[in-house]
Specification:
This protein is 0% helix and 64% strand. By secondary structure, it is mainly beta. A hairpin with a 6-residue loop joins strand 4 and strand 5.
Amino acid sequence: QVQLVESGGGLGQPGGSLRLSCTASGSVLSIGDMGWYRQAPGKQREVVATISTDNTTHLADAVKGRFTISRDNAKNTVILQMNSLKPEDTSVYYCNADVTAYRDVDDVFYFKRSQYWGQGTQVTVSS
């Protein structure tokens, strides 16, 4: 089993900073692309930032110049550094990862590649 556990959400001030972290644990063989998405009440989930295995990043226009995404492959972790926060950044943020998991059945290993999601962490930007 694989789990993505997020941390670092909470209340931020306009113009302030927050840092989100997400770590994959369990039967992880390898991780491909990782990313952060967000979903505000009554709106569809949208991509915020993604990072590939070679550290190529893509950021949504709404967060370019303010947010950065990075990863630590040794720790199976992806980080979203959010600076210059705005009230419109208020949302539930979800971590996503393309994970190849393994399973050992009587010394025979099976592998399966799937998309995994974290449980979500609330970010509220307000004075």
